[in-house]
Amino acid sequence: MALNSRFGRRVRVLRAEQGWGLRKFAKAVGVSPTYLSKIERGEFPPPAEDKVVAIADALGQDRDELLALAGRIASDLAEVIRARPIELAALLRAIRDLSPEAVRTLAETAHKMAGGKGAKGGGAGSGRRDGPPGQTARHHDGNTEEPPEYLA
Protein backbone atom coordinates (compact mmCIF):
# COMPACT_ATOMS: atom_id res chain seq x y z
CA MET A 1 0.00 0.00 0.00
CA ALA A 2 1.42 3.39 -0.96
CA LEU A 3 2.32 5.89 1.73
CA ASN A 4 0.00 8.44 0.12
CA SER A 5 -3.03 6.19 0.31
CA ARG A 6 -2.23 5.08 3.89
CA PHE A 7 -2.20 8.71 5.06
CA GLY A 8 -5.36 9.58 3.16
CA ARG A 9 -7.24 6.51 4.32
CA ARG A 10 -6.28 7.16 7.92
CA VAL A 11 -7.49 10.76 7.70
CA ARG A 12 -10.76 9.67 6.11
CA VAL A 13 -11.39 6.99 8.75
CA LEU A 14 -10.63 9.36 11.64
CA ARG A 15 -12.71 12.15 10.11
CA ALA A 16 -15.70 9.85 9.59
CA GLU A 17 -15.38 8.31 13.07
CA GLN A 18 -15.54 11.78 14.56
CA GLY A 19 -18.52 12.85 12.48
CA TRP A 20 -16.75 15.47 10.37
CA GLY A 21 -18.26 16.08 6.95
CA LEU A 22 -15.76 16.54 4.12
CA ARG A 23 -16.60 20.21 3.47
CA LYS A 24 -16.67 21.25 7.12
CA PHE A 25 -13.40 19.46 7.88
CA ALA A 26 -11.67 20.88 4.80
CA LYS A 27 -12.68 24.37 5.88
CA ALA A 28 -11.48 23.73 9.45
CA VAL A 29 -8.01 22.71 8.26
CA GLY A 30 -7.72 25.35 5.52
CA VAL A 31 -7.92 23.29 2.33
CA SER A 32 -10.51 22.88 -0.39
CA PRO A 33 -12.92 19.93 -0.19
CA THR A 34 -11.73 18.71 -3.60
CA TYR A 35 -8.09 18.73 -2.49
CA LEU A 36 -8.91 16.90 0.77
CA SER A 37 -10.98 14.31 -1.10
CA LYS A 38 -8.08 13.62 -3.48
CA ILE A 39 -5.68 13.27 -0.54
CA GLU A 40 -8.04 10.85 1.19
CA ARG A 41 -8.33 8.75 -1.99
CA GLY A 42 -4.55 8.72 -2.48
CA GLU A 43 -4.75 10.68 -5.72
CA PHE A 44 -2.64 13.49 -4.25
CA PRO A 45 0.31 13.12 -1.90
CA PRO A 46 -0.10 14.21 1.70
CA PRO A 47 -0.07 17.99 2.13
CA ALA A 48 2.68 20.20 3.53
CA GLU A 49 3.66 20.04 7.20
CA ASP A 50 1.44 22.91 8.32
CA LYS A 51 -1.65 21.24 6.84
CA VAL A 52 -0.77 17.82 8.29
CA VAL A 53 -0.42 19.52 11.69
CA ALA A 54 -3.79 21.24 11.22
CA ILE A 55 -5.37 17.89 10.32
CA ALA A 56 -3.81 16.20 13.36
CA ASP A 57 -4.98 18.97 15.67
CA ALA A 58 -8.53 18.95 14.28
CA LEU A 59 -8.69 15.17 14.72
CA GLY A 60 -7.04 15.20 18.16
CA GLN A 61 -4.21 13.03 16.90
CA ASP A 62 -0.49 13.13 17.57
CA ARG A 63 1.20 15.49 15.12
CA ASP A 64 4.39 13.47 14.81
CA GLU A 65 2.47 10.27 14.15
CA LEU A 66 0.48 11.80 11.27
CA LEU A 67 3.58 13.54 9.92
CA ALA A 68 5.35 10.18 9.84
CA LEU A 69 2.40 8.58 8.08
CA ALA A 70 2.63 11.42 5.57
CA GLY A 71 6.30 10.59 5.02
CA ARG A 72 7.52 13.75 6.75
CA ILE A 73 9.56 14.71 9.79
CA ALA A 74 8.61 17.83 11.74
CA SER A 75 10.76 20.80 10.75
CA ASP A 76 11.83 21.39 14.36
CA LEU A 77 13.17 17.82 14.53
CA ALA A 78 14.96 18.17 11.21
CA GLU A 79 16.74 21.25 12.58
CA VAL A 80 17.83 19.34 15.69
CA ILE A 81 19.13 16.46 13.58
CA ARG A 82 21.04 18.82 11.25
CA ALA A 83 22.65 20.50 14.26
CA ARG A 84 23.92 17.18 15.75
CA PRO A 85 23.82 14.57 12.98
CA ILE A 86 26.49 12.20 14.30
CA GLU A 87 25.17 12.01 17.87
CA LEU A 88 21.52 11.77 16.92
CA ALA A 89 22.09 9.19 14.21
CA ALA A 90 23.99 7.07 16.74
CA LEU A 91 21.22 7.53 19.33
CA LEU A 92 18.44 6.60 16.90
CA ARG A 93 20.31 3.53 15.72
CA ALA A 94 20.98 2.49 19.33
CA ILE A 95 17.29 2.71 20.33
CA ARG A 96 15.85 1.25 17.12
CA ASP A 97 14.96 -2.09 18.73
CA LEU A 98 13.84 -0.81 22.13
CA SER A 99 10.23 -1.19 23.17
CA PRO A 100 7.99 1.91 23.12
CA GLU A 101 8.02 1.88 26.92
CA ALA A 102 11.83 1.87 27.00
CA VAL A 103 11.96 4.76 24.53
CA ARG A 104 9.49 6.76 26.65
CA THR A 105 11.60 6.11 29.75
CA LEU A 106 14.71 7.22 27.88
CA ALA A 107 12.93 10.38 26.67
CA GLU A 108 11.75 11.18 30.21
CA THR A 109 15.29 10.75 31.50
CA ALA A 110 16.69 12.99 28.76
CA HIS A 111 14.03 15.60 29.53
CA LYS A 112 15.05 15.62 33.20
CA MET A 113 18.74 15.82 32.25
CA ALA A 114 17.97 18.85 30.09
CA GLY A 115 16.41 20.59 33.08
CA GLY A 116 12.87 20.35 31.77
CA LYS A 117 13.74 21.69 28.32
CA GLY A 118 13.15 19.84 25.11
CA ALA A 119 10.05 17.87 24.21
CA LYS A 120 7.70 20.15 26.11
CA GLY A 121 7.68 22.97 23.56
CA GLY A 122 4.46 22.18 21.73
CA GLY A 123 6.00 23.35 18.44
CA ALA A 124 4.88 22.39 14.96
CA GLY A 125 5.88 18.77 15.19
CA SER A 126 6.18 18.26 18.90
CA GLY A 127 3.34 15.79 19.06
CA ARG A 128 1.35 18.18 21.22
CA ARG A 129 -2.25 18.91 20.44
CA ASP A 130 -4.26 21.98 21.22
CA GLY A 131 -6.18 20.12 23.90
CA PRO A 132 -5.86 20.42 27.65
CA PRO A 133 -2.61 19.31 29.26
CA GLY A 134 -2.65 15.68 30.25
CA GLN A 135 -5.13 14.78 27.52
CA THR A 136 -5.17 11.05 26.79
CA ALA A 137 -3.40 10.23 23.54
CA ARG A 138 -5.27 8.19 20.97
CA HIS A 139 -2.99 6.22 18.69
CA HIS A 140 -3.48 4.83 15.21
CA ASP A 141 -4.20 1.38 16.60
CA GLY A 142 -7.06 2.71 18.74
CA ASN A 143 -5.19 2.27 22.01
CA THR A 144 -5.18 5.09 24.50
CA GLU A 145 -2.64 5.99 27.10
CA GLU A 146 -1.79 8.83 29.36
CA PRO A 147 0.87 11.17 27.95
CA PRO A 148 4.36 10.73 29.36
CA GLU A 149 5.46 13.16 32.05
CA TYR A 150 7.70 15.08 29.65
CA LEU A 151 4.70 15.88 27.41
CA ALA A 152 2.19 16.64 30.17
Draw up the topology in text.
Blueprint: H1 3-17, H2 22-29, H3 33-40, H4 49-59, H5 63-69, H6 75-83, H7 85-95, H8 100-113, E1 137-138, E2 144-145
Antiparallel strand pairs: 1-2
Helix pairs in contact: 1-3, 2-3, 4-5
- Mind summarizing the main beta sheet? 2 strands, antiparallel
Mean pLDDT rating: 82
Q: N-to-C terminal Cα separation, in Å? A: 35 Å
H-E string? HHHHHHHHEE
Overall body shape: elongated
Strand order of the largest sheet: 1-2
> Which strand-content bin applies to the residues?
under 5%
> Could you give me the name of the CATH homologous superfamily of the domain at 3-69?
lambda repressor-like DNA-binding domains
- By CATH reckoning, the class of the domain at 3-69 would read Mainly Alpha
Q: Tell me roughly what share of residues is in helical segments.
A: 40-55%
Number of helices: 8
**What is the number of E strands?**
2
Structure description:
This protein has 152 residues and is an all-alpha fold. Among the domains are: 3-69, lambda repressor-like DNA-binding domains (434 Repressor (Amino-terminal Domain), Orthogonal Bundle); 84-119. It contains eight helices and two strands. Strands 1-2 form a two-stranded antiparallel ribbon. Helix 1 (3-17) packs across helix 3 (33-40), helix 2 packs across helix 3 (33-40) and helix 4 (49-59) packs across helix 5 (63-69). The longest helix has 15 residues, at 3-17. The chain is elongated. It starts with a helix and ends in a 7-residue tail after the last strand. Mean pLDDT is 82; it is low at 120-145 and 147-152.
